[in-house]
Specification:
Number of strands: 7
Order of helices and strands: EEEHEHEHHHHHHHHEEHHH
Strand content: 5-15%
Structural class: alpha/beta
Strand order of the largest sheet: 3-2-1-4-5
Number of helices: 13
Largest sheet: 5 strands, mixed
Length: 339
C-alpha cells in the first residue's frame, strides 16, 4: 500500500500522523513522539506532507523536505473547515491531510533559516519597543500621582526625568526617587538595545541588493525592506500586486451578492507587522505631499480630501504594496514617473 498524502499535526512532544492512499482511503493513523518523527518519515516513500502553519512548522518543513517529501504548509483558518466533529489531534491531522489535497488551497512558502533569523531580529526589537512604550507610560502615570505631569512622548520623559529626580523641592518621597531612578536606567538600557538592533537591521539591508532597491520607494526604510524580504521569500507565489496587498490585509472586505459589489473596511488579514510598517511609512510620506505635484502625490491628496487622512494612508500603503511586488517580481528599480 502506497501512501500518497499525509497530514502532520505538530506539537511540542507528541505528533499525530494521518495518511491516505491512492484511492483517498485511510492508510495510516499513528501517534509519534518527537524523537520518532524523522525516523518514521525517512522510511516512507516520498509523498505529500501537509502541515498547519504554527510554531516550528518551517523547521519541520525544511527537515522533511530534505528527505524528499513535498511539503505543503497551510494557514490554520484554511484547515479548520475540513475538520470533522470535535477538535482533537486525530481530527486535526485528518483535516490537514484533506486540506493539503485540495487543488485550490493556498500554501505558505517555507522560510529558510536565514529568513527566520532576520525575522527574529525584528520580533525581538518589536518586543523591546513595546516594552519601552509601556515603561514610558508607567513612568508618566506614576509621576502624575505626585502631581508631576509630563507631555506625551518618550523624548520628554527621557529629558525631564533626571531634572525631576534632582529637584529637592518637588516633595517626592525617597523611596519614589529610588524607583524612578531605576526606571530611568531601565529606559536608557532599552534605548541602547533598540539602537543596537536598528544598526543590525541597517547592516542587513545594506548587504541585500533587493532591500536596497526597495528602499528607493518613499516610506520604505531598512526595517520595512528587510521585513518584507524575510517574510515573503519568493514573491512570485503571488500572481500580481493585488494578491500581495490582499495577503497583507490591505484590501477592502467584500459583501457582494447578486452582481452588486459591496466593499467595507480593510480585512486586516495576513501579517500584522508588515501591514503596520507600510501604513506608518505612508503616514510619513503624506506629511510632505503639499509641495509635490507628481501623479501619485496628486492622487493621494485627492483621496485625503474625499476620505480623510487615515483612509488615504491605508490606500497609499496598498499602492506601495503593489509597487513593492512589481519591484521584487521584475527585479526593477522604483520609477516614480510610471506610478
Amino acid at each position: 500500500m502506497k501512501i500518497m498524502r499525509i497530514g502532520l499535526d505538530l506539537a511540542k512532544n507528541v505528533f499525530e500522523v494521518y495518511g491516505v492512499d491512492e484511492q483517498e482511503q485511510r492508510a495510516l493513523s499513528k501517534t509519534l513522539k518527537r524523537s520518532q518523527v524523522m525516523k518514521f518519515f525517512a522510511q516512507l516513500h516520498p509523498c505529500v506532507v501537509g502541515i498547519e502553519s504554527c510554531g516550528s512548522a518551517h523547521h519541520w518543513a525544511r527537515r522533511l523536505r530534505s528527505l524528499g517529501h513535498e511539503i505543503r504548509v497551510m494557514a490554520p483558518q484554511f484547515v479548520a473547515p475540513y475538520r470533522k466533529s470535535d477538535k482533537n489531534d486525530h481530527n486535526d491531522a485528518e483535516a490537514i491531510c484533506e486540506a493539503a489535497g485540495r487543488p485550490n488551497m493556498r500554501f505558505v512558502p517555507v522560510k529558510t533559516e536565514e529568513q527566520q533569523a532576520v525575522l527574529m531580529v525584528h520580533r525581538v526589537r518589536s518586543l523591546m519597543v513595546g516594552e519601552r512604550t509601556s515603561l514610558v507610560n508607567q513612568i508618566r502615570g506614576l509621576l502624575s500621582e505626585f502631581g508631576i505631569v509630563l507631555p506625551q512622548g518618550r523624548c520628554h520623559v527621557r529629558s525631564q526625568l533626571p531634572g525631576i529626580l534632582e529637584d529637592a523641592e518637588n516633595e517626592l518621597p525617597a523611596v519614589a526617587r529610588e524607583v524612578f531612578a531605576n526606571q530611568y536606567e531601565r529606559l536608557c538600557d532599552l534605548d541602547r538595545r533598540i539602537d543596537g538592533y536598528d544598526r543590525k537591521i541597517e547592516a542587513l539591508a545594506q548587504a541585500d541588493n533587493d532591500a536596497k532597491r526597495l528602499m528607493g520607494l518613499e516610506g520604505v526604510g531598512p526595517i520595512t525592506a528587510t521585513a518584507i524580504i524575510a517574510s515573503v521569500g519568493d514573491i512570485t507565489t503571488f500572481k500580481n500586486g493585488r494578491q500581495f496587498a490582499a495577503w497583507l490585509g490591505l484590501v477592502p472586505r467584500q459583501w457582494s451578492t447578486g452582481g452588486r459589489a459591496r466593499h467595507g473596511r480593510i480585512t486586516k488579514r495576513g501579517d500584522f507587522y508588515l501591514r503596520t510598517l507600510l501604513i506608518h511609512g505612508s503616514r510619513a510620506v503624506m506629511r510632505y505631499l503639499m509641495n509635490k505635484d507628481d501623479r501619485k502625490s496628486e492622487w493621494v491628496k485627492a483621496v485625503r480630501e474625499r476620505r480623510g487622512f487615515n483612509k488615504a494612508a491605508v490606500a497609499l500603503a496598498a499602492k506601495h504594496a503593489r509597487i513593492l511586488w512589481a519591484m521584487l517580481a521584475k527585479g526593477s528599480e522604483y520609477q516614480p514617473a510610471s506610478v
